[in-house]
Amino acid sequence: MYVNNSAERGNFGSRLGVILASAGSAVGLGNIWRFPTEVGNNGGAAFILVYLCFVFLLAMPVMLAEFVIGRGSKANTVGAYRTLAPGKPWIVAGFMGVLGGILVLSFYSVVAGWTLHYTVESFANRLTAGQDFGAVFNDFVTNPWKPIIFQFIFLLMTHFVVSRGVERGIEQFSKVMMPVLLIIIVLLMCFSLNMPGASEGLRFLLRPDFSKVTTGVVLSAMGQAFFSLSVGLGCLATYASYFKKDMPLVSSAFNVCLLDSLVAILSGFIIFPAVFSVPGMAPDAGPGLVYITLPHVFNEAFASVPVLGYLFSGMFYILLLLAALTSTISMHEIATAFIHENYHLSRRSAAVLVTLICMLLGAACSLSFGPWSEVKIWNRGFFDLFDFLTAKFLMPLGGILITMFVEWYLDRKFVVEQLTNGGTLRVRGLSILLFLIRWVAPIGVGIVFLNEIAN
Ligand code: PHE
Q1: Whose CA is nearest to atom 10 of ligand 1?
Q2: Phi, psi at residue 377, to the nearest 5°?
Q3: In this predicted structure, what is the pLDDT of residue 125?
Q4: Residue 1: which pLDDT band, with cuts at 50, 70 and 90?
Q5: Which of 39, 93, 99, 131 makes the best surface tag, with the fewest CB within 10 Å?
Q6: Is the CB of 112 under 6 A from ligand 1?
Q7: Long-range own/partner contacts, residues 273-276 (CB < 8 A, 24 or more apart)
Q8: b or e along 202-213 (b: 16 or more beta carbons within 10 Å of the residue's beta carbon)?
Q9: CA distance 216 to 454
């Protein structure tokens, strides 16, 4: 049979494992690197409120729809559409997801590679005061081979976890790493909130100025919600295909959204109090916030006790690294599960193939910061192109197709059965959820999508 949904297929062993693995996919550079950058660029507290609305009104319905598709079919993203809608064009959404997973992993691993480099530099105590961190960052990312080496090491780390399989690899890893991550975040936040001048940062995060909410801000908030929750590519559908029968889908989706938002907001509480405590640092420093501004902040803020600055910075980059790893695993898994189940390759060989493809494409993304900065397709270097194609094109389009598939194509009874585990669970607000999946998500996301395309 085409779909391998028998007992030999991997399964997550425990409920906690499921939530932590899914939250591990969601929590990543998107929360700790991209979220603060977006908050900084879009004016602070008001952006956060808009973002939270989108998480629960648009992105959570897509996540639920992915859970229904994944667990309802017990197959990889492409196999899922083949099982649930044989011979129908919906399968395109599955292929888009596999392509999207590979493209995201290719450019995301560039930033993950930078993070690995900064982790090493930080522990080697080389991010010390008196340097021009902007120039240091620039020198590194434009170098033709150094960033690629770190990117490849990172891809191999991802490969190692994925090829170990679902329960022994992904679940075990997430179960250990997610709690470690939360502990590090809380510790860092305590440090940060105790810095002199931290209150300025708190004001930026907590006092909304609604005059700053423009359409651009609204669109950014929506894009951020999608990227941060990993929805639209079938990544969470793939994970859901490993869920057991008694896994409650609605509360799991809700918990993952809650945890992801919590980590994003706590990251804001780490970064902004620290940024505001150093005179001359701006909250809207862009993507460099984490690699240029923060090393400076660590040095300045702990000038009298450098050892604390050393610890603070080391912990921060390790945190970023672990968060990135639990996300890249899920991107890798979309394509690995597809190749493994579709082409009857062993899981290991499928994973090798995916890693090699991502190394090739990923190196092109890395080079687009240096020697290939002049190579442009549709006016974009490889990194920007892949970022655009996934976050602004495949993910929203996937979100629309996924929710429409579940609410307009699938049998209502089947969907309700999945959401209530065959009627054994009472789900409060079920009709509201179905309404969100049917109308609010596809239309809301459609608006972002059209706007992105128009720009
Ligand atoms: N959600 C991840 C993050 O916040 C990124 C991601 C995108 C993961 C797409 C999987 C699929 O970093």
Answers
A1: 230
A2: -120, 130
A3: 92
A4: very low
A5: 131
A6: no
A7: 273/192, 273/193, 273/195, 273/197, 273/198, 273/199, 273/200, 273/201, 273/202, 274/192, 274/195, 274/198, 274/201, 274/298, 274/301, 275/40, 275/201, 276/197, 276/198, 276/200, 276/201, 276/204
A8: bebbeebeeeeb
A9: 13
Q: CATH classification of 20-454 is 3.40.1390.10, yes or no?
A: no
DSSP state of 377: B
186-198 residue pLDDT tens: 888 888 888 888 8
Domain residue ranges of the chain, discontinuous segments joined by +: 20-454
Structure token pair of residue 224: 């951020």
Ligand 1 contact, 31 CB (< 6 A): yes
Whether the CB of 355 sits within 6 Å of ligand 1: no
Q: How far is the CA of 87 from the centre of ligand 1 (A)?
A: 30
CA 167-169-171 angle, to 5 degrees, is 50
Up-side HSE of residue 350: CA atoms within 13 Å toward CB? 22
Q: Which amino acid is at 362?
A: G
Q: What is the mean pLDDT of residues 305-325?
A: 88
Q: Percent of the chain beyond pLDDT 70?
A: 97
| CA 98 to centroid of ligand 1, rounded, Å | 14
Q: Is the pLDDT of residue 99 over 60?
A: yes
Relative to the CA of 28, which ligand 1 atom is closest?
12
End-to-end CA distance of the chain: 45
CA–CA gap between residue 374 and residue 14 (Å, rounded):
49
Q: Which two tokens stand for residue 76?
A: 């990889």
